């Protein structure tokens, strides 16, 4: 008769990944890859303790000759055979929310370069995929990156200046002409198809991603499930419980978006705001209210608040969708940057600023470096040009260093509109049919509801809303909860929240998970040997004392 209790035991996964975005896919793919490509040089490996830990576990690029030394081949029992499951609150597939927002914003090309992607095989995997599919025409060149576009006058002036270690002189990166092909923006369609190809290659498609919203995470011995008192993760979701030996947190900004409420004095903190939306919560664009008024032939006006790329995309898209006029407010001067971070943070190998970051003595120093590198929101030159075109045609009014200080919702026969006040005051500013906030999301690990149990039972230091993880991106040395993406910025650097940090985080996490399970196997082997020795001693003890049958010891001897 079958053992009923054994049949009803819940399944324990080796790895549960919370968040099925690009960072989560990068971790899952790296765990299944037997021979990953190099993302560090031998010089970086020797210099930085965070890389030195793994010895020959990772492939390295030789600085002098450019060749790649392969890592030691993993055995059949290593991480490629792990039982992996991913949980996502909004979709049952990889990069679902990512694709939804890109489609909603009608974004054709990514901001990132070609070597920022999720494949662990090679730095140039996305570029190779584009050419293998004959889709190189979908690549958009990024200007003013490659070294030849720096004039001789600027080079001479920079050489004569006295520069400190962190000045613009040292931070300036001269990109070799042979790397020009890397500085193209892939189309969203190409990147999305490449992510699907990566998921298919590593058999991560069917049933791996579950649409479940995580509510709590705990780590302790689970009665009736843990073997030999092994602590397990209990992941509580809106659909039940999931058990895992290791958990990877890849939740992006993590916190819920919030609209600055100080300007809406007539509304309580919990009261919903009509005809107002945060950029990450957009379902249709423009909103149904605006669409209806456009259909009825009414002049429509939309207010966009924010200083980053998303705000520029919304302003551009609103005008292209037929909104009569868009007003765009920024509280700071407009910042024009090709990428979120400077080139000195994102070169393919031998990253200059990353080296400074790894050498920092304290997390406070690292936090300052990350904040200084990222600054506030910025707009790439391509979108800045679009905004200037809209301004010249009278479709866009852009005001920098301007804040929204008051907003009143006024109901008329034609429908409700927002009457706003700004600082400094803008004479003749109209009423608006809709207000969009593209103000980003403030990351604060202390405010995440599903981490409250972990913060109580396994507390760690937190600085600036970010957890102080181990160099392996672990919650604690004895707690195999791994974190990647923006929450791991104190370990990954300024590019951690971007695709550039996805592969770096995946590499560290995969090596740490492999090390974790190897350690578990060694402990199980030692426990098994001890148990076998105790069994032999007990049998001989019974034989000498004359207990039971004296012939029982002959069964195995």
UniProtKB/TrEMBL annotation:
The keyword Flavoprotein applies. Its EC number is 1.14.13.196. InterPro entries: FAD/NAD-bd_sf, Lys/Orn_oxygenase. Pfam families: Lys_Orn_oxgnase. Its cofactor is FAD. It catalyses: L-ornithine + NADPH + O2 = N(5)-hydroxy-L-ornithine + NADP(+) + H2O; L-ornithine + NADH + O2 = N(5)-hydroxy-L-ornithine + NAD(+) + H2O. It is an enzyme of class 1 (oxidoreductase). This is L-ornithine N(5)-monooxygenase [NAD(P)H]. Belongs to the lysine N(6)-hydroxylase/L-ornithine N(5)-oxygenase family. The keyword Oxidoreductase applies. It comes from Podospora pseudopauciseta. Pathway: Siderophore biosynthesis. Keywords: FAD, Flavoprotein, NADP, Oxidoreductase.
């Amino acid at each position: 008769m079958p053992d009923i209790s054994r049949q009803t035991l819940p399944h324990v996964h080796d790895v549960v990944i919370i968040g099925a975005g690009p960072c989560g896919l990068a971790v899952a793919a790296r765990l299944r890859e037997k021979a990953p490509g190099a993302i560090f040089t031998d010089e970086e490996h020797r210099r930085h303790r965070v890389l030195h830990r793994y010895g020959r576990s990772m492939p390295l690029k030789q600085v002098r000759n450019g060749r790649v030394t392969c890592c030691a081949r993993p055995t059949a029992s290593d991480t490629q055979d792990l039982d992996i499951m991913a949980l996502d609150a909004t979709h049952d597939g990889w990069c679902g929310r990512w694709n939804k927002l890109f489609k909603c914003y009608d974004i054709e090309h990514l901001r990132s370069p070609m070597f920022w992607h999720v494949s662990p095989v090679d730095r140039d995997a996305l570029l190779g995929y584009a050419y293998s599919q004959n889709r190189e025409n979908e690549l958009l060149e990024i200007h003013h990156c490659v070294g030849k576009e720096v004039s001789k006058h600027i080079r001479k002036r920079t050489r004569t200046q006295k520069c400190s270690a962190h000045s613009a002189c040292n931070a300036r990166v001269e990109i070799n002409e042979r790397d020009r092909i890397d500085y193209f923006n892939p189309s969203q369609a190409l990147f999305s198809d490449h992510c699907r190809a990566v998921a298919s290659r590593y058999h991560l498609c069917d049933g791996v991603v579950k649409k479940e919203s995580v509510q709590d995470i705990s780590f302790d011995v689970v009665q009736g499930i843990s073997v030999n008192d092994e602590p397990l993760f209990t992941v509580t979701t809106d659909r039940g419980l999931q058990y895992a030996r290791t958990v990877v947190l890849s939740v992006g900004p993590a916190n819920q978006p919030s609209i600055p409420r100080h300007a809406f004095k007539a509304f309580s903190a919990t009261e919903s705001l009509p005809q107002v939306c945060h950029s990450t919560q957009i379902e249709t664009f423009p909103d149904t209210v605006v669409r209806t008024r456009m259909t009825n032939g009414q002049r429509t006006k939309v207010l966009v608040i924010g200083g980053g790329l998303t705000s520029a995309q919304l302003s551009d898209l609103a005008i292209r969708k037929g909104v009569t006029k868009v007003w765009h407010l920024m509280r700071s001067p407009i910042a024009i940057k090709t990428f979120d971070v400077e080139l000195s943070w994102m070169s393919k190998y031998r990253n200059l600023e990353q080296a400074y970051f790894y050498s920092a003595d304290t997390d406070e120093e690292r936090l300052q470096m990350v904040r200084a590198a990222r600054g506030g929101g910025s707009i790439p030159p391509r979108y800045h040009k679009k905004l200037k075109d809209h301004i010249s045609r009278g479709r866009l009014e852009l005001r920098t260093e301007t804040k929204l200080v008051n907003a009143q919702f006024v109901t008329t026969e034609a429908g409700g509109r927002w009457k706003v006040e700004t600082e400094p005051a803008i004479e003749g500013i109209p009423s608006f049919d809709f207000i969009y906030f593209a103000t980003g999301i403030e990351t604060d690990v202390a405010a995440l509801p599903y981490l409250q149990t972990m913060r109580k039972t396994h507390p760690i230091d937190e600085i600036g809303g970010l957890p102080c993880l181990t160099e392996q991106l672990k919650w604690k040395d004895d707690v195999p909860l791994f974190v990647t993406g923006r929450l791991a910025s104190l370990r990954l650097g300024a590019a951690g929240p971007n695709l550039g940090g996805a592969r770096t985080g995946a590499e560290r996490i995969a090596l740490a998970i492999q090390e974790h399970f190897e350690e578990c196997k060694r402990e199980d082997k030692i426990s098994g040997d001890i148990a076998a020795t105790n069994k032999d001693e007990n049998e001989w003890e019974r034989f000498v004392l004359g207990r039971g049958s004296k012939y029982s010891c002959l069964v195995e001897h």
